[in-house]
Amino acid sequence: MSTPAGIDPRGPRFAAAITAVLLLVATFLALIGISTLRTGIASFGWFAYQPLADATFIPSGWAISSAPLLQRALDPGFLLTVVIALLFLWGSVSPQTAPWGTLFRSAIRPRLAAPTELEDPRPPRFSQGVGLFVVGVGLVLHLLGVPWALPIATSAAFIAAFLNAAFAFCLGCQLYLLLQRAGVVGREATPV
Asked: Dihedral, CA atoms, 175, 176, 180, 182, nearest 10 degrees?
C-alpha cells in the first residue's frame, strides 16, 4: 500500500474553520431547542403548590421525552446538524469533491504561497469520519428522546474543529496516528 499524494495542510484547517462556525450555530440552536427544554416547571419559592380542584397536574421532565418524532426531527438544531453530518460524510467518502476543499483549492490556495510541506490525506479523512460518528450519535440519541444529547455532541465536535482551525491540532488525526501505531488502521496488506 503506497502513501497517497500529500495535501496542503491549510485546506483541512480552512474546512475546520467553516465547520466550527456551523457547529457553533448548531450547538446554540440545540441549546435553545427542544433538547434542553423542561416541561411543567413552576417556581413558587419554598411554598408548596396546591392545585385548584379543576387543575391538572403535569409532571415535570424533559420536553424531548414526550415530543413526537416529527417535532424532534424538525428542531432547527437537529436540521443543521443533519446538514453538518452530510458534510462530514461527503468529506469522508469523497474528499476531492467536498465543498470546503473545493472552495479552498479554487479560491483560497491560488492566493497563497506554496505550502512548505504536504501532509498525508488519510488522517484528515479519518477525522471527518470521527466527526460524522460524533454528530451521528447525537442525532440518533436526539431522535430517541435523550435530553442534552444533541448539544453535547455538537459541542464536542465544535471543540475538535476549533482546535484544528485555531491551533492546527487535529484530534481525529491524532486518533488516527494512535490507531495506526496500534496496527488497527493504515496497515500494509500482507501478501497471501
From this structure: 20
Q: What gap in Å lies between CA 51 and CA 189, rounded to an integer? A: 71
Question: What are the respective helix, strand and coil percentages of the chain, to the nearest 5?
Answer: 60, 5, 35
CA distance 3 to 17: 27
Q: Report whether 145 contacts 67 (CB < 8 A).
A: yes
Q: 159: part of which helix (H) or strand (E)? A: helix 149-167
Task: Output the nine-digit C-alpha cell for 110.
Answer: 491560488
Quick: pLDDT tens for 90-117.
Answer: 999 998 899 999 999 999 999 999 999 9
Global pTM reads: 0.85
Single out the residue of 3, 4, 10 nearest to residue 168, CA to CA.
Answer: 10
Assign 130 a pLDDT band (cuts: 50, 70, 90). very high
